[in-house]
Design brief:
8-stranded mixed sheet; 15 helices; 8 strands; 51% helix
């Protein structure tokens, strides 16, 4: 079944007209080839105009497309001899985060990532790609194994965020993600991270610390979802398109700000339009970056990774005396406000 997003409706209408004309001329009684060619030309122009000028919110919609390839699709298309591992050896096996060992171009590696479902039943099983603490503990257990055997790690990120339920918090969701971030910074094997759909908040960061971080052309990577941001800033989730633009969450924005290392180009219209093409492009990107990291010693990898993330963001250094003056001034201002409100 064809699933079209709101901004794709002109494309869908043209495709339907082309299909209708082809059906009419199929029996040979009508020759509509010229009309079909005209519509096909219009279709190509419409596709280029729409997909080359997508807004940040439209890219978020494509990132969430239900036909978009997920982690297991990429594992099947790029890797061979995949053996999935289960459980965190503490609580349970989280189906929202899958991982195991496989061969990449004949070379053993660890591959893992968030996994969403294709239908309601599978989405419930996969918790819509929102991992629990046990999912991140499972990922870390596998990363320790990869380090022990000197195997590179490839992580696919696709989650709206870590699961925020009471049970997850009781089992240490925030702590578990923090531990993963710390430990990934220390692991002495190459780590390549690729955001294939949604890269939401701490849920993405839990497996997102890598020597090379890539984002697909129509994926997004952000501290919060556009809807969550809109609910906080405007108290109105319908402001999500404005929030998406303000968050600078697209691959292009992230590369310009030097928050990521590269963009994986997608087929026109999104990764779901041509699975063979996107898997080949992704394979080439992984190959390229693994080649770059080949031969770098474990300690050197860790140091370079540390410096990479230390350079992110903007900060200013100041003398202690200056900071103390600012603090005192701020405290005086706060005191005056309290006295004024007391009166």
């Amino acid at each position: 079944m064809m699933i079209a997003l709101d901004f794709e409706k002109p494309i869908l209408e043209l495709e339907k007209k082309i299909a209708e004309l082809k059906n009419l001329s199929a029996d040979g009684s009508l020759n509509l080839d010229s009309e079909v060619k005209k519509l096909e030309s219009r279709l190509e122009v419409a596709k280029k105009e729409i997909y080359h000028n997508l807004t940040p919110w439209q890219r978020v919609q494509i990132a969430r497309h239900p036909r978009r390839p997920y982690t297991l699709d990429y594992i099947q298309g790029i890797f061979t001899d995949f053996v999935e591992f289960h459980g965190d050896r503490t609580f349970a096996d989280d189906k929202a985060l899958v991982g195991g060992f496989a061969l990449f171009e004949g070379r053993p590696c660890l591959v893992m990532g968030h996994q969403k479902g294709r239908d309601a039943k599978e989405n419930i099983m996969r918790n819509f790609g929102s991992a629990h603490p046990e999912g991140y503990r499972k990922a870390l257990r596998l990363m320790y194994m990869a380090q022990k055997f000197g195997l590179p790690i490839i992580a696919f990120v696709d989650t709206p965020g870590a699961y925020p339920g009471i049970g997850a918090e009781e089992r240490g969701q925030a702590y578990t993600i923090a531990v993963n971030i710390r430990e990934m910074a220390r692991i002495e094997v190459p780590i390549i991270v690729c955001v294939i759909g949604e890269g939401g908040s701490g849920g993405a960061l839990g497996i997102g610390v890598g020597d090379r971080v890539l984002v697909m052309e129509n994926a997004y990577y952000s501290v919060i979802s556009p809807e969550g941001c809109a609910a906080i800033l405007w108290k109105d989730r319908t402001k999500a398109p404005e929030a998406a633009a303000a968050l600078k969450l697209t691959a292009k924005d992230l590369l310009e700000m030097k928050l990521i290392d590269g963009i994986v180009k997608e087929p026109l219209g999104g990764a779901h339009k041509n699975f063979q093409e996107i898997t080949e492009t992704t394979r080439q990107a992984i190959h390229q970056y693994l080649k770059e990291l080949e031969g770098i010693g474990g300690r050197d990898l860790v140091e370079a990774r540390y410096q990479k993330f230390r350079t992110i963001g903007v900060y200013q250094e100041a003398q202690l005396e200056t900071i103390e003056k600012i603090f005192v001034k701020s405290e005086k201002k706060r005191s005056r406000k309290k006295m004024a409100s007391a009166k």
